[in-house]
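Subject: for your reference before the review

Hello V.,

The reviewers asked for a structural picture of the protein, and I figured it would be easier to keep everything in one thread rather than splitting it across files. Below is the amino acid sequence we used in the manuscript, unchanged from the supplementary table.
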Amino acid sequence: MNLPPIVRRYLDDQQIAYRLIACTPGESLVQIAAKLDIPLRQMARIVLLKDDAGLIMAILPCSYILDFSRLRQVLQRDLEPLYGLETTRFFQNLGCALGSHPPLPNVLDIVALADESLAQDEEEEVYFDGGGGDALVGMRGGDFRRLLASARWERFAASAADLDVLVNDRQALTPSHLTSFTRRYTPACLREGIEAITELPTMPQTAQYILALRDNPHVTLQDILPIVEQAPGLAAQVVYCARSPLHGHHGAVDSLETAIDEVLGIETTLNLLLGASMGRTFQIPADGPIGLQGFWRHSVYCAALVSELVKMLPEPNSVKPGLAYLSGLLHDFGYLVLGHALPARFFVFNRILAANRNVPLNAVERYVLGVEHWHIGAWLMQAWNMPSEVIAAVRWHHSEDCTQSYAEYANLILIANRLLHHIDLSKGYASHLPALAMFTLGLTRDQAMEALARVESSRTELDTLSEALSWLPEN
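And here is what came back from the structure prediction:
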């Protein structure tokens, strides 16, 4: 177990007893707490806040969310969080591992604000990220308070459990309630919703290269291997994915070359690599109904199910199987943009979904995020010059009467999303199959359910692939 030298020296100099607890690199504090059976209120996390006057480190329990209205009252400042790469670079410059954010403001020479809900019991342990990526630091609550003696202790956070009680009240889901609720837990500078997203990030160079390979009719296995080998975790899962019964390969799949050349094929592999490369551009929380893990799990299953549905389409048809798979993989990418650009709103959005499993998703998106995910997703696909079929699928996959160009791709995803409701992998969608889409594509209910059964038989492989995509390092 490692601690950055600056962190270890500081803890030792304080002459405060502490212990190190091993944890899995790459996992969130919420996941670590679940594995170690630690109550979230005993796990301390940080949020870096900024305004023109400088940076502040807010320290609060993992089970709490910032109350920005209270923050303004306490500090008389309109603060906004640092997000994604800004926070990552801040801690990496101090020798911390990727994604590790220790709540030690004196080490970082930064002003701190600590929430009064932390360490209320002097004997009860408090745990926090040690900065090395593979260890938690644990110490008595009283010692943790002494460690943060220079911090200002105030009430500025609200318990997520209390929020869930509020949003579990059906009356709270009216537009006016949603709007006022969201304002309280959203920085003032981000209340404009989509207007706050002034520009989209540029497509990663790796993704641009993969797109070029997709358009090259002469691409070979040797062109692909260097890309896969840049992400060892994904390389292993490409092999594992190829062993899925969905692909009907009966021989041994014991190498990357066999997985690509004999089972998945070049186009499917490129589509998988493209989705992975694009996804690493955005930083969103791992946890929650539409956190990074849930996002990739739903997307991987949707892509697999769309591929199975395509096999059942009557001939002749104009659907290109590779583009159908890619559309299924990318159809919800708008959530990545929204979670990356509007993280405070995205947190509230996830809390509402967690407490209300059958809420009308589009209404909550509109009033909490300020825009629906298909809108921002289509904007991203257009900005990144993705194929027209993919743009159409992202834009129209919630429409039951889509007659636009390339409607067949949107209809396939609409059907797949409805089917995934039957195995609890859908987010607020209806479960009935859309009659017009089914009729237009020439699919029967029996065929659709057969496709779902085939996908369900490969749950182990699909879950492993989605987990690998969730934890790939940044570009």
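For the response letter, the relevant points are probably these. The longest helix spans residues 292-311. The chain has two domains: 5-167, 205-470.

Happy to draft the paragraph if you're swamped.

O.
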